[in-house]
Structure formats: structure tokens, C-alpha cells
User: What shape does this take?
Amino acid sequence: MTSDTDVTDAQIAGLLLAVAALIGEIRRKGVLDGGEIDGALQRLADDIGGSKLAQAAPEDPMIRATLAPLEQLRRMNTLFDEASGRFPDWISKGDEGA
Assistant: This one.
């Protein structure tokens, strides 16, 4: 039997992979480069980290949970291969530090 938590985790993983695919397509088309995408994700993380809740309780599980997908997308962004337009080794390297 699969728990609700397992299903939720799988849904979040699927969403992150979908966003990574969009990031890859944006990079492949030359709309934004890896540094610009990383910068956008970092600015969002900085905004979250600068929120009143994060300042009051930086170790709050909700803050960490909100930042985790941004960190994962930043890792995925570094794995993008310009030549193939894909994310080789994303399973092993994308999970590092997770």
C-alpha cells in the first residue's frame, strides 16, 4: 500500500521534473542562460529567507520545505547539457544533498 505521503512526494518530484524540463527548454531556445535561471531561483530563495517568518524562525520546517524545491531546481539547472538539451545523470546527481 502506498501512503498519502509517498503519493505527495511523488507528485512534488514530478512537478520538479516538469519545471526542470521547462528550464531546459528555455535554455535550449536561448531565452535565458543557466546563470540567469540560477539568479532568478536564488532571488526567490533570498526573498523567502528574508521574510518575517524566516527571520523569526529560520529553522522552521515550513521555511526549509519551501526552499527545498528551489535548491533542487538550482541543482538540476547545473546538470543541463547544452549539446543534448537534456539533463544527463539527473537521478544520481539531482538527489545529491537532498
